[in-house]
Specification:
The chain is an alpha+beta fold. 29% of the residues lie in helices and 23% in strands.
Length: 386
């Protein structure tokens, strides 16, 4: 089946000369770290095997009470603080996740409640590891259509609760975390071209149903309660290397730019070999690609916003810089967007003003299964705290 692709630019906005720009950012990862050495005690593997094949050295694991919604809410609260706005200044909350706390209510609604928002529309979006790019495009369309002024775009996952911890081919890959941005509408001056235009320059989204069951989670109303990730690693690797390069190239060209005019690439953090392949395929130097998968592993829809937040903190983006994000995921899906950075990186210090104790997600009476780590990880966490 052929790949289906859509793309867009600021020129397609319903309000002429309107685009969007990022004004806030933040992330949250669990405190508990699971190293490759720790994994050697859970499955038959080794630090050398994992590191050489993936580039991953450790990942963060959610403890009891840490959920997709709770981490997403903290990341969102920090993004709001960085942007200097309140929750009720936001018109839309979009959460990209494949590990929601529940099928219903949406994680976005739980996050809205935790933030104290009273007016934003809120919903979840599922596009696997490409989810953040899809959510960004949806929020961009909402704002450029004149339906609001600001949106929270969040990627959040607790993949440790959807991993088969007896399958060494997949359990070594994934981690937990959340990242968020505030996306605001921006009215452009007439005649601004790609060389000077601020904010969102382009995006590119694609979907290829031929890979629907090469990377999937069977659990659902029709399939019953199997929530564990299944992956054909070889097929997924081929798709990822081919498609990430194609989608990144298309997004950069759609922005009217060349790779040489892009200051930073922030790829989905899945595998260092995939990232290195994309670097060669688009003739883009690795030193201009932001990588943090060694610390977090693959956090699916959360990987790009976490990496973006850390890239700003590391001084890798300054006003006027152009960056491109690119991702692939189950479905198969892929997505990319190109943006010119305009925010003051120093505003990132405002995230420290958020008190985590003030951000509380409402849980059902008696708790929920989403609050609990798998038994093998709970035993590991218990040993850590002795």
């Amino acid at each position: 089946m052929s790949e289906q692709r859509i793309g867009g630019t600021t020129g397609s906005a319903q309000i002429p000369n309107r685009t969007t720009h990022i004004t806030g950012w933040g992330h949250e990862v669990p405190a508990a770290t699971l190293t490759n050495a720790d994994l050697e005690k859970i499955v038959e593997t080794s630090d050398e095997w994992i590191t050489t094949r993936t580039g991953i050295r450790e990942r963060r694991i959610a403890s009891k009470g840490e959920t997709t919604a709770s981490m997403g809410a903290l990341a969102a609260a920090r993004a709001l603080a960085v942007a200097g706005i309140k929750a009720d200044d936001v018109d839309l909350i979009v959460v990209a996740t494949l590990t929601p706390d529940h099928l219903m209510p949406s994680t976005a609604v739980l996050i809205k409640g935790a933030l104290g928002s009273t007016r934003a529309a809120a919903f979840d979006l599922s596009a696997a590891c490409s989810g953040f790019a899809y959510a960004y495009a949806v929020a961009h369309g909402f704002l450029t259509a004149g339906l609001g002024q600001r949106a929270l775009v969040i990627g959040a996952e607790t993949l440790s609760r959807s991993v088969d911890w007896s399958d060494r081919s997949t359990c070594v890959l994934f981690g937990d975390g959340a990242g968020a941005i505030v996306l605001e509408a921006l009215d452009l001056e007439a005649g601004q071209g790609a060389a000077s235009r601020p904010g969102t320059l382009s995006f590119e989204l694609s979907a290829d149903p031929s890979g629907a069951y090469a990377l999937w989670i069977p659990g659902g109303v029709g399939e019953g309660a199997d929530p564990l990730i299944k992956m054909d690693g070889a097929k997924t690797y081929v798709y990822a290397t081919r498609t990430m390069a194609a989608v990144a190239t298309a997004a950069i060209e759609r922005a009217g730019l060349t790779p040489a005019q892009v200051d930073l690439v922030i790829p989905h953090q899945a595998n260092i070999r995939i990232i290195e392949h994309v670097s060669k395929a688009i003739n883009y130097p690795m030193e201009k690609i932001f990588v943090n998968l060694d610390k977090y592993g693959n956090t699916s829809a959360a990987s790009i916003p976490i990496a973006l937040s850390e890239a700003v903190a590391a001084g890798r983006l300054k006003p006027g810089d152009v960056f491109c994000t690119v991702a692939f995921g189950g479905g198969y899906t892929s997505g990319a967007f190109v943006t010119r950075w305009g925010a003051d990186p120093a505003h990132g210090a405002r995230a420290a003003s958020v008190d985590p104790a003030s951000i509380r997600v409402v849980r059902p009476e008696g708790g929920a299964k989403a609050d609990e780590p798998p038994a093998v990880l709970q035993a590991f966490l218990d040993r850590r705290h002795r």
